[in-house]
Amino acid sequence: FSAISGPFNARGTQVRVTAAVGVSIYPSDGEHAADLIKNSRTAMYRAKEAGRNGYRIYSPAMNEKAATLFRMEGMMQKALEKGEFILHYQPKCDLKTGFVTGVEALIRWLSPEMGLVSPADFIPIAEDSGMIIEVGEWVLKTACAANKRLHDAGFGGLTVSVNLSPSQFKEPGFPEKVARILKDTGLPPGYLEFELTESVIIHNAEEIINAMRELKESGIRFSIDDFGVGYSSLSYLKRLPIDILKIDRSFISNVPGNSDDVSIAVAITRFAQSLKLEVVAEGVETAEQLDFIRKIGCNVMQGYFFSRPLPEDKLKALLKEGKNLKNHV
Ligand code: C2E
Ligand code: CA
Ligand code: CA
Questions:
Q1: HEC sequence for the chain
Q2: Per-residue b/e over 31-65, b at no fewer than 16 CB within 10 Å?
Q3: Which residues does ligand 1 sit against, CB inside 6 Å?
Q4: Which of 303, 298, 324 is CA-nearest to residue 244?
Q5: Closest Cα to atom 45, ligand 1: which residue?
Q6: Residue 131 contacts residue 141 (beta carbons within 8 Å)
């Protein structure tokens, strides 16, 4: 590691490289070269995951993790085919008017073997295995089609927000895919929003910025999700076509009691206002929290206080009733 730690001079530019090394040992990890190479590669990927500059020695448990990933991937593939994924929609309300202005689409997996699986348990696996591309496409299609149905049922102004994983964005042709889905479902682009976390932006800046600009030009809006818990680099906000900041639930859950969280929520809101961004407070559970976010100037609320994420029929019933923040107790 010290031999390659550099810096090296590459045509006048100083570069540093890191190494990730995987080790497998003959004969315990394989009798043949092909097995030894395969196992050392598995170990190398672990070294990369652990932060790149390091080594890992192969152990059979590493393959067990790969096998679990593989099994889950197969199950998710079947789940897509059999329609075991469903979307719930959580309303967001405008704090001035009290009306529902949009919904966030949130995926769930109704597995016959495992019951109701939370996205927190399978989205990371879908991301690691690459399944997120197919799952994400299904989410986007389903969410756009549902919002179009709501528009046709008389709720014309609603936007739908869809969570995007970094790898979806990195996929070549993603903007074209989105355009096709909008066309097929008949949803105008102005009623679709994408939620990205700060990590997406750090991942692969140039590719992502280009894709975002292209999508933004068509009328789609972007929000930064879980704002405040990720990277502290704020310079990306200037370079990206962002419309909305969502203050992370962890800051909202302890206001107005916790003075640090109060300061953070106020600072994020002011910061977003000065960049002319809309501010959404998520995870609002109590009347006190609602009161607080209204006072500090947030624009939109989302949270159990008004509604949990709902299946499409329940959402429609809520809208039909004309339920809004003002008549909600
Ligand atoms: P997220 O994007 O931050 O979504 C908000 C999460 O907070 C949702 O959890 C929602 O049910 C929950 N929540 C909303 N209001 C409240 C509240 O007042 N109190 C509490 N305690 N929780 C509240 P959920 O549905 O379990 O989703 C978890 C995460 O999974 C999401 O976090 C998102 O990162 C990811 N996810 C969900 N659907 C998708 C998807 O279609 N694609 C991708 N890539 N990720 C998704
Ligand atoms: Ca979200
Ligand atoms: Ca969030």
A1: CCCCCCCEEECCEEECCCCEEEECCCCCCCCCHHHHHHHHHHHHHHHHHCCCCEEEECCHHHHHHHHHHHHHHHHHHHHHHHCCEEEEEEEEEECCCCCEEEEEEEEEEEECCCEEECHHHHHHHHHHHCCHHHHHHHHHHHHHHHHHHHHHCCCCCCEEEEECCHHHHHCCCHHHHHHHHHHHHCCCHHHEEEEEEHHHHHHCHHHHHHHHHHHHHCCCEEEEEEECCCCCCCHHHHHCCCCEEEECHHHHCCCCCCHHHHHHHHHHHHHHHHCCCEEEEECCCCHHHHHHHHHCCCCEEECCCCCCCECHHHHHHHHHHCCCCCCCC
A2: eeeeebeebbebbbebbbeeeebeebbbeeebeee
A3: 90, 106-107, 118-120, 123, 136, 139, 163-165, 195, 225-226, 249, 282-285, 302-304, 309
A4: 298
A5: 163
A6: no
pTM: 0.86
The string of pLDDT tens digits covering residues 186-215 is 999 999 999 998 877 766 567 788 889 999
Which atom of ligand 1 is least distant from the CA of 106? Answer: 38
Ligand 3 centroid–CA 282 distance in Å is: 7
pLDDT tens-digit readout, 246-287 = 999 999 999 999 999 999 999 999 999 999 999 999 999 999
Among 76, 80, 89, 106, residue to substitute to test ligand 1 (most atoms within 8 Å of Cβ): 106
pLDDT at 67 over 90: no
CB-proximal residues (5 Å) to ion ligand 2: 163, 195, 225
